[in-house]
Amino acid sequence: MCLSDRFLLWRSHHLLRMGSSNNIQAKLVLLGDMGTGKTSIALRFVKGQYFDCQESTIGAAFFSQILSLNEATVKFDIWDTAGQERYHSLAPMYYRGAAAALVVYDISSTDSFTRAKKWIQEVQRQGNPHLVMALVANKADLETKRQVDNEEGELYAQENGLFFIETSAKTAQNVKELFYEIAKRLVKARAARRSGMKLHEETQDRGRRLFCCST
């Protein structure tokens, strides 16, 4: 870890300990088929590591990481869910109450893309209007084996109001960019909610003043 990275990490932990109002603690869940590289994405982001033979997740795995933006410090509590069908029933326990969800598919597998669509539909049915969700096309390093075109994934994401990005956990392509974009969107969403709350409170206050002063 270089000196600048150490400083940013220290600064992020310091700000969180201070309890600043610009701190966000966000639950993020990774969803998708087995073998799409969900764990590899998490490991690459959190520890900068990649393993060619990554063992399948059993149930779920937990990671945490802090990102320091100009606007806020975001602490991600990352839940990496198992992709095997036998663990599907456990998934709602992790994505309910999540601030963000990454639905991952493998660009060399049409089946994983079809499954990703089902995950998106399932999560959207929970009805969380503030959920930040991304469709992640992983294994971009397997271009010669591609089965799902970039345009196909991007179009589906646009139609469903999702952020879309192609990544490679193996080469680290766009992994940091993915989480920084999610962090930025979380900050923006919180600011919008706060503005809405202030507007609602101001409207209520004006209503009370008019009621009190009416004759």
From TrEMBL:
Q: Which residues cross the membrane?
A: none
For this UniProt entry, the molecular function terms from Gene Ontology, in alphabetical order, are: GTP binding; GTPase activity
Subcellular location(s): the record lists: Endomembrane system
Q: Which CDD domains would you find in this protein's record?
A: Rab5_related
Q: What is the superkingdom listed in this entry's lineage?
A: Eukaryota
The biological processes this protein is annotated with in GO are: protein transport
Annotated SUPFAM superfamilies = P-loop containing nucleoside triphosphate hydrolases
Q: Which UniProt keywords apply?
A: GTP-binding, Lipoprotein, Membrane, Nucleotide-binding, Prenylation, Protein transport, Transport
Q: What is its main location?
A: membrane
Cellular compartments per GO CC: cytoplasm; endomembrane system
Its membrane topology, per UniProt?
Answer: Lipid-anchor
Family named by the database record = Belongs to the small GTPase superfamily. Rab family.
Write down the NCBIfam families for this protein, in alphabetical order: small_GTP
Q: What name has this protein been given in UniProt? A: Ras-related protein RHN1-like isoform X1
In its UniProt entry, the species of origin is given as: Phoenix dactylifera (Date palm)
